[in-house]
Design brief:
By secondary structure, the protein is an alpha/beta fold. Helices cover 36% and strands 22% of the residues. The protein contains 17 helices and 23 strands.
């Protein structure tokens, strides 16, 4: 099998990097090298930014209707190429093909939302706000935007960034994850095929040095980041110091509350899928289950359901979860499982050392379940980012709410119940940005904003929905009065009143 060399994209062209620093992209089920990706030089990053800056001068003037039609073609191309995109995700990330296709679908939702740009970017008007004075606003693009994405959603996360940024008239520099870039690169190819002009969407690759250069670059006006809390905090502070708009969507510790009146089979099945799907490598994964009252008696059934889940390569049609993205990720997760044991959590199901027939080198960790987990334990405090489910038990809904609100993260939470009153109480009192009611992973549809909060988010505007339009545009307010040609001045007005 030939090994792909991942290019940059500058001025609408695939450009080979001249970097001397290249990294292998590895199939996590087999350890086969499938691609090589460069860590671009500082000069190459500057060249990509310069391309975007130059293209902005013309792209900002392209009519809304034309931008909309490009997005319409882009969404059609994504839909037509879903299978190819999903196969590339699975090859380099490891998630199952159905899960990968689902990811493409969630990314597609954002592009479909961008197709409404002719109404999303409208301003406001107040006629005769003062004597013969109209006040109105424009929502104008900022200039060059940039995005840095994590490995776990190589299609969805770029779609959280560049389609709306470009649709609002900005140009863009994307730095995808170096761990699984091929599906992202194919997405960018489809964007150009849809009619995005040269220079409007550029791609570079690299690690911390490239990320820092993007955060510092004076010609980049806004930066969107999705990834770890550590990196996101550093980049947020760095970009803010450079005068940029910045949004950092970061780590999480998501909880799912199960009330004793919930539909038992529905709750358990949803919990298992949300905890172990994508091998737990989701920032919105339900990694903590809080069983309330008599629901604590469901623990054994939950464990048995996890034990029956099928682990295999992402191409295996009946697999529920695939491998972790790298040997280092597997080692970290298995280490944290050991730490959980030492700290006194009750290990109900141990996924360490999991072997899949025919794939001896795969980064597999089986579903793992800990009971009697407390807030002081490392497996609760840290984001494991693997197929590890922590189970805690409490007596009341009040205790569950207090337990969740004491956690520093606020990305997502959910509750399973058949009581409307309980659900309403939960959504009102819980201090988390995204809430699911009988929905295990409450990532909203793309025309609503992604609203993680507290330690999971820096910046007041999130991706998608109306917040993304506000993030990628600057409001210009015009106060205008036109005098009749023969109008005689009423004299000097030294007040601030409009009359």
């Amino acid at each position: 099998m030939s090994v792909r060399e991942i290019p940059m994209v500058i001025d609408g062209q695939s450009v080979p990097s001249q970097s001397q620093d290249w990294r292998d992209v590895v199939n996590p089920a087999t350890q086969e090298v499938v691609a090589r990706v460069p860590f671009c030089t500082a000069e190459e990053v500057d060249r990509a930014v310069a391309s975007a800056k130059e293209a902005f001068q013309t792209w900002r003037k392209v009519p809304l209707g034309k931008r909309m039609r490009i997005m319409l073609k882009f969404q059609a191309l994504i839909r037509d190429n879903t299978s190819e995109l999903a196969a590339l995700i699975t090859e380099e990330h490891g998630k199952t093909l159905p899960d990968a296709e689902g990811e493409v679908g969630r990314g597609l939702e954002v592009v479909e939302h961008a197709c409404s740009i002719t109404s999303l970017q409208l301003g406001e008007l107040a006629e005769n706000a003062g004597t013969e004075i109209d006040v109105y606003t424009f929502n104008q693009p900022l200039g060059v935007g940039a995005g840095i994405t994590a490995f776990n959603f190589p299609i969805m996360l770029p779609c959280f960034m560049f389609p709306l940024a470009i649709a609002t008239g900005n140009t863009f520099l994307l730095k995808p994850s170096e761990q699984d870039p091929s599906s992202t690169m194919r997405l960018v190819e489809l964007a150009h095929e849809a009619g995005i002009p040269p220079g409007v969407l550029n791609v570079v690759h690299g690690g911390p040095e490239v990320a820092n250069q993007i955060a510092d670059h004076p010609d980049i006006k806004a930066l969107s980041f999705i990834g770890s809390t550590h990196v996101g905090t550093l980049l947020y502070n760095r970009a803010a110091a450079a005068g940029k708009r910045m949004q950092s969507m970061m780590g999480a510790k998501n909880h799912c509350v199960v009330m004793p009146d919930a539909n038992r089979s529905q709750a358990i099945n949803n919990l298992l899928g949300s905890a172990f799907g994508a091998a737990g490598q989701r920032c919105m994964a339900n990694s903590v289950v809080v069983l309330v009252g008599e629901a604590r008696q469901w623990l054994d059934e939950l464990v048995e359901g996890a034990r029956r889940m099928t682990v295999g390569p992402g191409t295996q049609c009946d697999a529920d979860l695939g491998p972790l993205v790298s040997p280092q990720a597997r080692e970290r997760v298995e280490h944290l499982i050991g730490v959980g044991e030492k700290e006194g959590a009750r290990l109900m199901l141990d996924g360490r050392g999991y072997q899949v027939e025919g794939y001896p080198d795969g980064n597999f960790v089986g579903p793992t379940v800990f009971a009697d987990v407390t807030a002081e334990m490392t497996i609760y405090r840290e984001e494991v980012f693997g197929p590890v489910l922590c189970v805690a038990g409490v007596d009341t809904l009040d205790e569950a709410i207090a337990f969740i609100n004491a956690n520093p993260n606020g990305n997502g939470t959910s509750i399973f119940t058949n009581s409307g009153w309980v659900a309403k109480r939960f959504e009102r009192d819980i201090d988390v940005g995204q809430v699911g009611i009988n929905v295990p992973i409450p990532v909203p549809v793309a025309y609503f904003s992604f609203t993680g909060s507290r330690g999971s988010k820096l910046g007041d505007l999130g991706p998608n929905g109306k917040q993304a339009i506000a993030f990628w545009t600057q409001t210009k307010t015009v106060t205008a009065r036109w005098f009749e040609p023969e109008n005689v001045s009423g004299g000097i007005n030294s007040t601030i009143s409009m009359h």
